[in-house]
TrEMBL record:
InterPro entries: Methyltransf_25, SAM-dependent_MTases_sf. It comes from Hymenobacter aerilatus. This is Class I SAM-dependent methyltransferase. The lineage of its organism: Bacteria, Pseudomonadati, Bacteroidota, Cytophagia, Cytophagales. The keyword Acetylation does not apply. GO terms for molecular function: methyltransferase activity. It comes from the Bacteria.
Amino acid sequence: MPSSPSVAHDPMGHALLDFHHGHASATLTVHSNVAEDEPLPASYLFRTLWEMPELERTALEACQGRVLDVGAGAGAHALELQQRGYTVKALDVSPGAVQVMQQRGVQQVACHDLFDPILHNDQPYDTILMLMNGLGLVGTLDGLEKFLVHARGLLAPGGQILATSADIAYLYEDEEGALVLNLNGPYYGEVEYRMSYKEETGAPFHWLFADASILQDYAEAAGYTVEFLDHDEQDQYLVRLTLL
């Protein structure tokens, strides 16, 4: 991979590059089919250890061996793990994010999709790290099933996946607190997003929010043991999936 991949249609990457080069107010807008538009300050992707939520700090403490940091953004987690002496490969589909990580000193960076078969050429990983609701990168329940098979070929024996996700059922509650779901439609945790920055809007992409019980069902069916390590008041949780 060239040391400076070209940045094409990449709102996330442009926002991160602008912030990294001194534009402190650089802010993305997150559009979804389940909620109002929300701002995402680029600065959040550059947070230090003590600015990270407790779930993320717990996940970093649980890392082992060689780490694949998936959806690495500006490299906040990869840099912290490097500082602790871990060998880390940071993965992101955003060419701009890859440039930022290289400029910030992340030693191993790759611009690949999570499912890119080229990852199977790597030495096996002891930990696959998926933070910031990072399990969502699988996109859908079908994608989760596919990923759990794919990850078996990336992990060393006894390797682990450390991932955060959330139950977003609360978005579908009526005024009395009862769930209003279309049982004939897609799983309620399958969300469509777009990112925009300045005048640029990215392509739509799917993101999965998996409730804990459905994740456990899928993971156990794929041959993993499931351990929920932590959760917070926003219905987010940290899970460890370990190869049997």
